[in-house]
Amino acid sequence: MIKSIRSDDGARLVAWLQEQRESQNLTMRQLAIELGVPHSFIGKVEQRERRLDVVEFVSYCEALNVSPVEGLKAVWPEFK
């Protein structure tokens, strides 16, 4: 099993998160403030140097006001 941080699915999920942030005209710093983390955290996630666990993913989505389920469907369209 390939590590999720290096997988194509992981890359698509991170790209979806970045697209959501950018579509809201949020900077990495603004999102980091919303999450209560250093802005480097966002940069490392978007550069795929750090992966999110499931709890972090849900919090990230909540900070962006997007559904985690929509993110999963963006990567795996068959997800219900």
Brief overview:
This protein is mainly α and 80 residues long. 62% of the residues lie in helices and 0% in strands. It is globular.
What this model shows, in words?
The chain has 80 residues and is mostly helical. It has helices at 8-23, 28-35, 39-46, 54-63, 68-75. The chain is built from 5 helices and no strands. The relative contact order is 0.18. α1 packs across α5 and α2 (28-35) packs across α3 (39-46).
Spell out the blueprint of helices and strands.
Blueprint: H1 8-23, H2 28-35, H3 39-46, H4 54-63, H5 68-75
Features:
80 residues; single chain; mainly alpha
- Which class do the helix and strand fractions yield? mainly alpha
Q: Give the DSSP E fraction (strand runs of 2 or more residues).
A: under 5%
Q: Averaging pLDDT over every residue, what do you get?
A: 94
Poorly predicted residue ranges: none
Assign a percent range to the helix content: 55-70%
Helix count from the secondary structure assignment: 5
Largest sheet: none
Count of β-strands: 0
Radius of gyration: 12 Å
The N- and C-terminal alpha carbons lie at a distance of 23 Å
